[in-house]
């Protein structure tokens, strides 16, 4: 079937979901972008929602990289990227073996437990930074959940939050990581048959919404205080964790 998706229920969730995706790619409301695919999954199967989202992620990634190209932590990226790409490979090889709602539920529980620990027992200012093994494990989980449902945001937030980075450094490091991870998905997604003309046409219509979200988010990230930036990150993790947990308990379809 050609042409764009015409189901009104899809567009009611797609427009806010894609705007949220763009905002999160800028670093502003970081973590909330993982809500985009679960929101779309209200109106369509998860694999189709992931296929519609991937071209939009590519556009948002490119814009975020250009805007934040001078703000990143290369040392952290060297720990994140190899494990994240390994997670993509694992997700590809095991695609369909573990139901998407099970993955969502697991990530939701981990996210909420981490956030509770951060809020109830906040780390001391002199607490040691996450080690290489912990960082790599979180990146592996991020790559895997990103492949399954573009839900890799919470694990990366867990890896970066304890480092207390400046907002632009946090945003730039996240932007490079996810741009690389999302680029690595294209061939596996194509080989799995997740792309079709209708999904791609629908993605094309939504590109201006994603781009607008990135522009608005970069503007806000450059102006928000560090304190409020991290409060927004935590809010994003809370909402994402709750949504993923709900999807795990009450799967759609």
What's the arrangement of secondary structure elements?
Layout: H1 8-25, H2 36-40, H3 46-68, H4 74-93, H5 100-120, H6 132-149, H7 153-160, H8 167-184, H9 186-191, H10 197-221, H11 226-249
Helix pairs in contact: 1-3, 1-10, 3-8, 3-10, 4-6, 4-8, 5-11, 6-7
Membrane topology: Multi-pass membrane protein
InterPro entries: TM_pro_TauE-like, TSUP
Main location: membrane
Give an overview of the whole structure.
- It is a single chain.
- The protein contains eleven helices and no strands.
- The chain is an all-alpha fold and 253 residues long.
- The protein has one domain (8-249).
- Helix 4 packs parallel to helix 8.
- The longest helix is centred in the last third of the chain and has 25 residues, at 197-221.
- The two termini are 21 Å apart.
- The mean pLDDT is 81.
């Amino acid at each position: 079937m050609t042409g764009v998706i015409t189901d009104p229920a899809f567009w009611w969730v797609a427009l806010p979901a894609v705007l949220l995706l763009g905002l999160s790619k800028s670093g502003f409301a970081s973590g909330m972008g993982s809500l985009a695919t679960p929101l779309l999954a209200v109106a369509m199967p998860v694999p189709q929602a992931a296929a519609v989202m991937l071209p939009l992620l590519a556009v948002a990634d490119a814009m975020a990289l250009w805007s934040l190209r001078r703000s990143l932590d290369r040392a952290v990226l060297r720990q994140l990227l190899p494990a994240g790409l390994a997670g993509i490979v694992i997700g590809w090889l095991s695609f369909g073996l573990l139901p998407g709602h099970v993955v969502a539920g697991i990530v939701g529980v981990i996210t909420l437990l981490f956030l509770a620990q951060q809020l109830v027992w906040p780390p001391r200012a002199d607490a040691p930074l996450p080690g290489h093994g912990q960082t790599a494990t979180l990146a592996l989980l991020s790559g895997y959940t990103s492949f399954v449902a573009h839900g890799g945001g919470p694990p990366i937030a867990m890896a970066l939050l304890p480092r207390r980075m400046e907002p632009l450094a946090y945003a730039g490091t996240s932007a490079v990581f996810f741009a690389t991870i999302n680029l690595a998905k294209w061939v596996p997604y194509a080989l799995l048959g997740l792309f079709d003309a209708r999904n791609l046409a629908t993605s094309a219509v939504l590109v201006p919404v994603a781009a607008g979200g990135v522009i608005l988010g970069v503007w806000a990230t450059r102006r928000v205080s560090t304190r409020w930036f991290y409060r927004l990150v935590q809010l994003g993790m809370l909402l994402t964790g709750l949504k993923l947990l709900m999807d795990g308990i009450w799967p759609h379809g």
